[in-house]
Automatic annotation (TrEMBL):
Alphabetical keyword list: S-adenosyl-L-methionine, Transferase
The protein, known as: Carboxy-S-adenosyl-L-methionine synthase
Function: Catalyzes the conversion of S-adenosyl-L-methionine (SAM) to carboxy-S-adenosyl-L-methionine (Cx-SAM).
GO MF terms, alphabetically ordered: carboxyl- or carbamoyltransferase activity; S-adenosyl-L-methionine binding
Entries under SUPFAM superfamilies matching the protein: S-adenosyl-L-methionine-dependent methyltransferases
Binding-site residues, S-adenosyl-L-methionine: 39, 64-66, 90-91, 118-119, 133, 200
Recorded catalytic activity of this chain's protein: prephenate + S-adenosyl-L-methionine = carboxy-S-adenosyl-L-methionine + 3-phenylpyruvate + H2O
Length: 243
C-alpha cells in the first residue's frame, strides 16, 4: 500500500490549494481509498468493462492516471486482445515518476507508455477504451467540453469512455445529505473533523464539481449516443458513454 495520509491532521495557519505533489504521491492510495466511497469497486469493475469494449489493434487511454491503478485494471481486461497498447497520462511529474516505477514492477504483455502531459493538450486517437477516473473534475470547467470532444473524436465506433466524478446535487437539501454521508464515511475511515474541513478548503478552488445533469448534457453535446451511470455511492459516481 502506501503511507498513511495525515497531510491535513495538524492545524494549518493557511490552507494552500491542493496539488498532486510528492507529499500527496507518497500517501495517494491511502488517501483515495479513505476519501472516495466505492473507489475499490470502480477499480474492480474496470477490467470487466474494458473486456467488453476493447477492440483489436487499438489504444486504451488512462487520462489522469496518478500512480497507475486504473491503468493496471485496464490492462487486466485487455491481455487476451491482440495489438493493443495503453497510454497513461498525468500532468504531475511526481505522479508520473511513481506510475512508471509501479507499472514496471508488474510483468505485462500489453505495452504501457506513461506520459507527463496536460490532458487538455494530449492527443487521443484510434481508441477503444478511455478511462477518466476522478480527473475531469480537476480540469477548468470551461475546458471540459473540449477535452470530451477530443475523447469522442479519438474513439472508434463502439468505443467507451468510463468517467468517474464527484458530483453536486442540484437540490440543496440532497446536496447537503450526500456531503454529510460522505463526511461520515471519511470519519469512519479515521479522518478527524479538522482533516475533513482543511481538505475541503484545499480542494475548493481546484476541484469545481458539476451536477450529474451537467455531465449528461455535456456527453450528449459532444455526440455520445448511449450513456449510463453504472455506479454511485453518495456524491461519487461513475458513468459509461459509448460512441
Ligand atoms: C484523483 S486523481 C486520479 C486517480 C486515478 N485516476 C486513479 O484511478 O487512481 C487525479 C489525477 O489527475 C491528474 N490531473 C489533474 N489535472 C490534469 C490535467 N489537466 N492533465 C493531466 N493530469 C491531470 C492529477 O495530477 C492526479 O494525479
Ligand atoms: O477528499 C475529498 O473530499 C475528495 O473529494 C476526494 C478526492 C477526489 O474526489 O478525487 C479529492 C482529492 C484527492 O485526489 C482524492 C480524492
Amino acid at each position: 500500500m502506501s503511507s498513511r495520509d495525515n497531510i491535513f491532521s495538524q492545524p494549518l495557519a493557511s490552507v494552500q490549494d491542493f496539488c498532486f505533489d510528492q507529499q500527496v504521491v507518497e500517501v495517494f492510495p491511502d488517501m483515495i481509498n479513505r476519501s472516495v466511497p466505492g473507489y475499490a469497486s470502480i477499480l474492480q469493475t474496470i477490467p470487466q468493462l474494458t473486456q467488453r469494449f476493447v477492440q483489436d489493434n487499438t489504444k486504451l487511454y488512462d487520462l489522469g492516471c496518478s500512480r497507475g491503478a486504473a491503468t493496471l485494471a485496464m490492462r487486466q481486461g485487455c491481455e487476451q486482445q491482440s495489438g493493443c497498447e495503453i497510454i497513461a497520462i498525468d500532468n504531475s511529474p511526481a505522479m508520473v515518476e511513481r506510475a512508471k516505477q509501479h507499472i514496471d514492477s508488474f510483468k505485462t504483455t500489453v505495452p504501457i507508455t506513461v506520459r507527463c502531459e496536460d490532458i487538455v493538450e494530449s492527443e487521443v486517437d484510434n481508441a477503444s477504451v478511455v478511462v477518466m477516473n476522478f480527473t475531469l473534475q480537476f480540469v477548468a470547467p470551461e475546458l471540459r467540453q473540449q477535452v470530451l470532444e477530443k475523447v469522442f473524436n479519438g474513439l472508434r465506433p463502439g468505443g467507451v469512455l468510463i468517467l468517474s466524478e464527484k458530483i453536486r446535487s442540484e437540490s440543496a437539501a440532497m446536496n447537503e445529505l450526500l456531503i454529510d454521508l460522505h463526511h461520515d464515511f471519511k470519519r469512519a475511515n479515521g479522518y478527524s473533523d479538522l482533516e475533513i474541513s482543511q481538505k475541503r478548503a484545499a480542494i475548493e478552488n481546484v476541484m469545481r464539481i458539476d451536477s450529474l445533469e451537467t455531465h449528461q448534457q455535456r456527453l450528449t453535446n459532444v455526440g455520445f449516443s448511449q450513456q449510463s451511470v453504472w455506479f454511485q455511492c453518495f456524491n461519487f459516481l461513475s458513468m459509461v458513454a459509448v460512441k
